[in-house]
What does this fold into?
Amino acid sequence: MNDTLNHGFAPNIKYNYDDLIKLLTSENIKEKHFAVLELEEIRAQQDAKLLVSNLVGQDGKIREAVAFKVNELLKNPNYAKFFISEDIFVVLIQGIMDINGNVCRHICSLECEEFNQYLCENLPAEINKILARISELEADEKQYVISKRNFQLYWCLEALYNIIKIIEFDKTKDILLKTGEFNDYTIREKTAKILTKLDNSELAELKEKLKNDENYYVRRYLRKE
It folds into this structure.
């Protein structure tokens, strides 16, 4: 192993692979952030798990860098194989519900068939949990709490949009009927976007309603059809 770490962190020095993996365990934000961005390959599943573990419980700067890096590495089949693990997928789905939209966006757009299949089996349950929490909120609940839940739902619906063609309709029907009636127009907007990929008579009424929604950003999707 390169002995550069023995002399303290120096970002102007070229670190080798093992050094960067070691830095992923650092408690120092600058060191960890540097390691994530400098990492150009993954050589083992345990290293992939270590990288992905930094997607939760870390500073926002770290989480965003990890989401970007995972998205980048998964595009290469030589590295993508190391990310095929349920342990990793459990963490990735949490990234979809991050409070940082850039994290959510990178995870939603992952190019991974196995992760998409995992989402088909598990995303509906996560969405229903969020819907249940929202329904339990009091009318005078702190606005940031309401906004946080809606934000999570928004990105989960974006993830649902990406897999809607391969997920069983029965798993999504009730979700779409609920989100299509939401007060928050951004949730109705995502629902309308999803409906552009569906042609099901059970959603025809909702589709027509959203096509004529009072909000332009909602109705624009369905009026393009």
